[in-house]
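User: Can you predict the 3D structure for this chain?
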Amino acid sequence: MAEQQLSEYVTLISNDGFEFVVKRDAANVAGTIRKIGMVMEKLSEYLYYNLKHKEAKHVPDMELPPALVLELLVAADFFDGELYRWSLLALENQWRRS
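Assistant: Here is the predicted structure, written as structure tokens:
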């Protein structure tokens, strides 16, 4: 995917629906939010990758940074089963390449 310039602000949405617009550098002080940002970026890339190859029978593996594979697996558990299955396959492929 092409590199995009990140906006100066991010929107944090609580479980009860409240939205908080804060400066990105302030939000990134919290390590969890910073990590979630990277994981959500990869999950978003996967959604577009999946859409692009929706009708294909033989889809090439999506490249994943080895450092994020386990975190993606954990995050995918909160999404539908297809993302979870994809994460397991990606994890297996990363281990095979190591």
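Helices lie at 24-27, 31-52, 69-76, 81-97. The beta strands are 9-13, 19-23.
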